TrEMBL record, chain A:
Belongs to the binding-protein-dependent transport system permease family. Keywords: Cell membrane, Membrane, Sugar transport, Transmembrane, Transmembrane helix, Transport. InterPro entries: ABC_transporter_permease, MetI-like, MetI-like_sf. One of its GO terms (biological process) is transmembrane transport. It is found in: Cell membrane. GO terms for cellular component: plasma membrane. Its main location: membrane. It is a multi-pass membrane protein. Gene3D superfamilies: MetI-like (1.10.3720.10). The chain crosses the membrane at residues 21-43, 76-98, 110-130, 159-184, 205-230, 269-289. This is Permease of ABC sugar transporter.
TrEMBL record, chain B:
It comes from the Bacteria. Residues 1-24 form the signal peptide. Part of a binding-protein-dependent transport system for a sugar. This is Probable sugar-binding periplasmic protein.
C-alpha cells in the first residue's frame, strides 16, 4: 500500500483513500481506542467488571512490589536479549552457509524453515517432552549408559527460561535464516568480485561490507523478533505454565492471569500498560531515527 | 417428485423449531468436571435432568476451575450465557451477581423450602447475597484430607501413619525405598490449598479464621503461623521430587504406590474409586491430617444466568429441582466422593472415608473455606506465593511468612 500523500493534493487517488477508510477506522477505534481505554482503566480499582472508580497509581505501586511481576520482567529481559542475539547470529550463519552454492540447498532450507510452520503451542509441547527428564534427552542419554547425565531445564528454577529459549530459537531461526538468505542473494555478485580483487578475506567481507549493506533486512528481522519477544505467552503456557513455581513467568501471562483468574482487571490493565510503555520506549526513538531522518538523504 | 421432497424437507425444518421446545428444552450446562471420577458423577446429573423431559447439553471445560472460570465469566459478561454453570459457591461469582447477570432463585428456594433441607446451613449462606439466593449447592467438598497409599508404607516397612506428625517422621523411610513421600502437583492452587490445610490442621480452626476471616496480618506474621510455615517447609521437602502438573496425576502417584501420600480435597476419592481401590484396605484417609477433624463447607454449586427465553428459564427451574433431589444427590455424591448437601438422605453405600466425613458433619465440626472468605485476587496472590515457595528450596520460611502476612494485610 503506497501512501505517498502530498498535502496540497487531498483528493488525489480519492478511490484509494476511500477504500482505506475502514482500515484507518479499525486502527483508530480498535488499536488506539482500545489502548487508551486500557490505560484509563488501569487507574481504577476495577475487579471482575470495569468500573470508573479511580485510585491513582495504586495498581502500579502494587505491580512493582509484586515478586511475580519482577520475576516476569527479569525473565523477559534474559529471554529477550538472548533470543535477539542468537536468532540474528544463528540465522545469519545458517544463511551464509547456505549461500555457499551447496548441494541440496532446497532440502536444507525446508528443514530449517519447517519448525516455523508449527504454532508455539505445538512447539512448547514438543519441547516439554524433549526436555522431560524421564522421557526426553536426559532419559535417552542415560539409557545409553551415561548414568550421571543431567539435563532437565524445565524442572530447575534457575535455568528454566533457557529451556524456553531453546524451543523459541528452534521455532524461529528458520524464518530469520530465510530473510537473511534473501538479503544475501540481493547483494550484487560484483561486490564479491571487487572484494576478492582487493584481497579482502571472506570473513572481513561479510562483517564490513555485506552486513552493513543488509541493514534493511536486519531491521525487518529485528522488528519481527522483538514483537515475538514482548508477546511471548503461549510457549510458556504450553511448556511450563510458568513453573516451577513462578520461575518462568512472563509479563503477558501476568496480564492474562490477573485479568481473568484473579478477576482483577485494574491490575491486569496496569501490567499491560507497562508492556505498552516498554514497547513505546523502544519503538519511538527508533522510528524517529528511521523515518524522521529521511530528509538527510 | 423433486418438488415433493423439497416441501417435505421444508416442512420438517419448520416443524422442528416448534416441536422441539415442547418436547425437550436444551439447556447448556458448563462445568470443569473432566477427570474420570468427576465425569462419571456429572453423568448422573445429566441422566436425571434428561428424565424430566429436558435435555442436558454438556459443556465440560477441561483443565480445572482456574482455566474454566475465565471462559464461563467471559461468556456471561459477553452476552452469550449458558443455561447453568458450575462455580464454587462463595465469592467467585459475587460481581456477576452484583451486576445483575445471575438469576435470583429466592422464590424457588422458598417454595421448595431449601432453608430446611440444605444442611449445614452455612452452605446456603455461600449462595446468598443481600438476602437473596443465587445458587444451588450440590455437594460439600472439603480440602482437609490426607490420602495415604498403604502399599507404599508397606514397601518402606513403616506402619501407615495416623496423623501428619507421624507422616513427617516416616518420610525418610519412604525416601529410602525410592518413594516420593508427598505428591504435590505443579498447578499453583495445589500448593496453596495444601498450605491452607496445614494451617487448619497444625494451627487450628481459630488460627485459620483469624488469618482469612479477620485478615489479621499481625497474627499471620506471628509465632503460631510460623509453626504452620515450619510444617509447610517439611511438606515441600517431602514433595520435591514430584514432577507432575495435574492433581489427578499426583493422586495417581499415590494410587500406584509411587508416592506415599497427598494432601488433597475429597474429590481425590473419585480417582481411587475409578481405579478400583477400597478405602481402608488399599488407601487410608485422614480428615484434617489426623490432627484437627473438621470439614470446610466449600463445594460446588450451580448458578443460573438470567435468560430472556421463557422455555429455558423454566428448564432452569427444573434443573435446580433435579440437582437437590434426594435420589440425584445420592447417585452424584457417591460417584464424586463428596458429601451430600441434604441431611435427610441415607448414604448406606458410602465408603469408609465418606462415613468419616459424614460423622464429622453430624458432629457439626464445620468451618468456612477460602472460597467464601477471600476474593479471587487474594487467592491468586496466595497461589503465586506458595507455588514459588514449593518450587524454590532456597526461599526461606521467614521470607515466605513475611510475604504471606503482606498478602493478608492487603486481602479483601
Amino acid at each position: 500500500m503506497s501512501k505517498s500523500e502530498r498535502p496540497n493534493q487531498l483528493f488525489r487517488n480519492l478511490n484509494a483513500k476511500v477504500a482505506s477508510i475502514p482500515m484507518v477506522l479499525t486502527a483508530l477505534v480498535i488499536f488506539v481506542g482500545g489502548s487508551a481505554w486500557t490505560v484509563l482503566y488501569s487507574f481504577t480499582n476495577s475487579k471482575l467488571l470495569p468500573r470508573l472508580n479511580f485510585v491513582g497509581l495504586d495498581q502500579y505501586y502494587r505491580l512493582w512490589s509484586t515478586p511475580r511481576w519482577l520475576v516476569s520482567i527479569e525473565n523477559l529481559l534474559v529471554y529477550g536479549v538472548l533470543s535477539l542475539v542468537f536468532s540474528l547470529v544463528i540465522g545469519f550463519i545458517l544463511a551464509a552457509l547456505l549461500d555457499q552454492k551447496i548441494r541440496f540447498e532446497d532440502t536444507f532450507r525446508t528443514i530449517f524453515l519447517y519448525p516455523f510452520a508449527l504454532s508455539f503451542i505445538v512447539t512448547g509441547l514438543v519441547w516439554q517432552w524433549l526436555l522431560n527428564p524421564e522421557f526426553g534427552i536426559q532419559g535417552v542419554v542415560r539409557g545409553l549408559g551415561w548414568e550421571s547425565f543431567s539435563f532437565d531445564p524445565l524442572y530447575n528454577s534457575d535455568i528454566v527460561i533457557y529451556g524456553i529459549l531453546i524451543a523459541a530459537l528452534w521455532q524461529g531461526t528458520g524464518l530469520i535464516m530465510c530473510l537473511m538468505l534473501a538479503g544475501l542473494r540481493g547483494i550484487d555478485e560484483d561486490i564479491w568480485k571487487a572484494a576478492r580483487v582487493d584481497g579482502i578475506p571472506t570473513l572481513k567481507t561479510y562483517l564490513f561490507i555485506i552486513i552493513p549493506m543488509m541493514r534493511p533486512v536486519f531491521i525487518t528481522a529485528l522488528v519481527i523478533i522483538a514483537a515475538g519477544i514482548v508477546k511471548v505467552y503461549d510457549l510458556v503456557v504450553a511448556q511450563t505454565s510458568g513453573g516451577p513455581g513462578i520461575a518462568s513467568e512472563v509479563p503477558a501471562k501476568y496480564v492474562y492471569d490477573y485479568m481473568f483468574f484473579a478477576q482483577n482487571l485494574g491490575q491486569g490493565f496496569a501490567a499491560s500498560t507497562m508492556m505498552l510503555l516498554s514497547v513505546v520506549v523502544v519503538i519511538v526513538p527508533w522510528a524517529y531515527l528511521e523515518f524522521g531522518g529521511k530528509k538527510r538523504g | 417428485m423433486r418438488y415433493q421432497i423439497m416441501t417435505a424437507a421444508l416442512a420438517v425444518t419448520t416443524a422442528l423449531p416448534f416441536a422441539g421446545p415442547a418436547a425437550a428444552t436444551d439447556l447448556e450446562v458448563t462445568h470443569w468436571w473432566t477427570s474420570g471420577g468427576e465425569a462419571a458423577a456429572v453423568a448422573e446429573f445429566a441422566k436425571a435432568f434428561d428424565e424430566t423431559g429436558n435435555h442436558w447439553v454438556d459443556g465440560a471445560i477441561a483443565g480445572s476451575g482456574g482455566t474454566a472460570r475465565p471462559i464461563m465469566i467471559s461468556r456471561i459478561t459477553g452476552g452469550d450465557p449458558m443455561g447453568a454453570t458450575q462455580f464454587n459457591h462463595g465469592r467467585q461469582a459475587e460481581e456477576l451477581v452484583q451486576a445483575g447477570l445471575m438469576r435470583d432463585l429466592t422464590e424457588l428456594a422458598t417454595r421448595d423450602k431449601w432453608a430446611e433441607i440444605v444442611q449445614p446451613k452455612s452452605l446456603l449462606d455461600g449462595c446468598t447475597l443481600d438476602g437473596k439466593i443465587y445458587c444451588v449447592p450440590v455437594n460439600i467438598h472439603s480440602w482437609q484430607w490426607l490420602w495415604l497409599s498403604n502399599a507404599a508404607f508397606e514397601k518402606a516397612g513403616v506402619p501407615v501413619p495416623k496423623n501428619w506428625n507421624e507422616y513427617v517422621a516416616a518420610a525418610p523411610a519412604l525416601e529410602k525405598a525410592g518413594i516420593i513421600p508427598l505428591a504435590v502437583g505443579g498447578q499453583p492452587w495445589q500448593s496453596s490449598g495444601a498450605f491452607d490445610v496445614l494451617l487448619t490442621a497444625v494451627g487450628g480452626t481459630d488460627a485459620f479464621l483469624k488469618v482469612y476471616r479477620d485478615k489479621d496480618a499481625e497474627f499471620a506474621a506471628g509465632p503460631e503461623v510460623a509453626k504452620v510455615f515450619k510444617a509447610a517447609d517439611d511438606a515441600r521437602k517431602m514433595a520435591k521430587n514430584t514432577n507432575v502438573q495435574d492433581w489427578n496425576q499426583a493422586t495417581n502417584l499415590v494410587i500406584s504406590g509411587k508416592a506415599g501420600g497427598q494432601i488433597m480435597g475429597d474429590w481425590a476419592q473419585g480417582e481411587f474409586q475409578v481405579a478400583g481401590q477400597t478405602a481402608g484396605k488399599d488407601y487410608t484417609c485422614l480428615p484434617g491430617l489426623g490432627l484437627n477433624e473438621v470439614i470446610a463447607t466449600g463445594g460446588d454449586a450451580f448458578y443460573f444466568p438470567l435468560l430472556q427465553d421463557a422455555e429455558k428459564s423454566k428448564a432452569q427451574e427444573a434443573l435446580a429441582e433435579t440437582l437437590l433431589d434426594p435420589k440425584t444427590q445420592v447417585a452424584f455424591n457417591l460417584k464424586k466422593g463428596s458429601l451430600p448437601v441434604r441431611g435427610d438422605i441415607d448414604l448406606k453405600a458410602a465408603n469408609d472415608c465418606m462415613k468419616k466425613g459424614l460423622d464429622i458433619l453430624a458432629k457439626g465440626s464445620v468451618m468456612p473455606w477460602t472460597d467464601q472468605l477471600l476474593s479471587q485476587d487474594t487467592q491468586k496472590q496466595k497461589e503465586d506465593l506458595f507455588s514459588e515457595f514449593f518450587a524454590k528450596p532456597d526461599m526461606t520460611v521467614e521470607e515466605a511468612q513475611k510475604r504471606f502476612a503482606d498478602i493478608v494485610a492487603s486481602a479483601d
